[in-house]
Structure formats: C-alpha cells, structure tokens
Description:
Layout: E1 4-8, E2 11-19, E3 24-28, H1 39-45, E4 50-54, H2 71-84, E5 90-95, H3 97-108, E6 113-119, H4 130-150, H5 155-166, H6 169-173, H7 176-186, E7 201-206, H8 214-223, E8 227-232, H9 238-241, H10 243-253
Parallel strand pairs: 3-4, 3-5, 5-6, 6-7, 7-8
Antiparallel strand pairs: 1-2, 2-4
Amino acid sequence: MEKKTCQIKGLKIAYLLQGQGDKYCVLAHGWGANIETMMGVYEQVKKNYRVLLYDAPGFGQSDDPKEVWGTEDYADFLKDLCDHFNIDKADFIGHSFGGKTLTIFAVKHPEMVRRLVLMDASGVLPKRGLDYYFKVYSFKFLKRVYLFFHGGQGREKALEGFYKKFGSDDYQASQGIMRKTFVKVVNESTEAYFPKISQPTLLIWGRQDQATPLWMGKVFEEKIPDAGLVELNGGHYSYVDDYGTFSAVIGSFLKD
C-alpha cells in the first residue's frame, strides 16, 4: 500500500486510511518506528474497522516537528490528526512510545476513545539503583575527558562526536530537533495519567521485553482502573514475536 500525505500543524504527515466498516481504529507506532511496524496489527483489525495508521512527526516519511516536542505535544498532534479525518470516536492501539502518547490522549479526550490497547508501552520511568547512577556519573566523566582532548575542534562539534560514539542507539539514530525531542520524551513519566484513564484497557506485554520490562506493564495494570494485562512470549515487539496469541487476544478484546 502506498502512503498518502496530509498537512497537520504545518507538517507533511504520511498516513494510510484503509479497511472497511463504520467504526474507526487508530494505530500509533513506537519511537524510531513507522507505519510499517504496525502492519501486523492492521491485518488483525482491518476486517471490522476503517484503520488509520500514520508516521508520527519526525518518523518515517513525515516531517520533523519545527520545535522540540514532548509526549503531550504528540498527544495534541493526534487530536488534530483525528479532527482532520473527522474521527470523533475510535479504538486506539499504541506500541511503546505510541502507547505512552495514548495514555495522555485518552485522559485529555475521553469522549474520543472507546477502548484502549497498550502494547509494551513506555511511560513508567526505569528504577534507578546504584548501577544506574554509576553509569550516569561514568558517562559524565567520560564526556569531560572526551571534551578535554577534542575541544580544539569546537564544543558543539566535539559534543556531536561524543554522542555519536557513546550515546544510546536511539540517541545516535536521531538528529537535530529529534535528538532534543528524544532527550525530553525519554525523561517524561506519564504515570500520573494512569488512574484517570476511564476506558477499558488491554495491556499486552512481552515477558522478555528489555526496553519496557514486564514490571512496568504491571504498574500500568495496577494504576489504570479498568485494565487487564496479557503476557506474551516475546520481547519489546511482543505482538510480532507471539503473533498467534496476540491475534486471539486482540480479536477477543475488540469483539463487539
């Protein structure tokens, strides 16, 4: 399927609007991903829905935001996107950062969300023990040493070289506005929104997920009033790793 484009907030946004029926389902991909990573989900819901998939700003074939965004900005963008297509109520499915975005969206616009599916979602900050702080201070020390020996080329250029060499995979993969957006987003917790989510919520998590570990899914389950957690035999893309179980579970949850 060939992506189409529209203009939202002055940005060119790539999207697909496919499927059949008079109900809508909106799919939100994770950080660093795109429409293609949600096609397995689309295949499971297309028979009963008009399905909207989109490359979020800064990903896939969509434009980067014009300024640094946080998770709430992505939730506000999703509202504008739904308005553009006259979607006033839908089921929403989000993976990873897409799920994090939906935890805000569902609270700010409860009238638009019929049901919610969060798959290996982010939004719970990792536990920070002594090993975390050791890594942080070691990283900072390494940066000071690197700048000392490479500072002659200019601080900005030296910092760019340092983060390309030692930064996280997601950080290294991002540039410009998206790099600053990543730094902002990764440090934001959305836990305060969980108790305010009023919609029936299905949580799907991989037992071997290392990016958003299973214990985070249990925090979602504990704090969202009407939530149920299903564990799959997989990692961060659990819906791909254990597609058969995922298909049965989501089919049952979305059945009217």
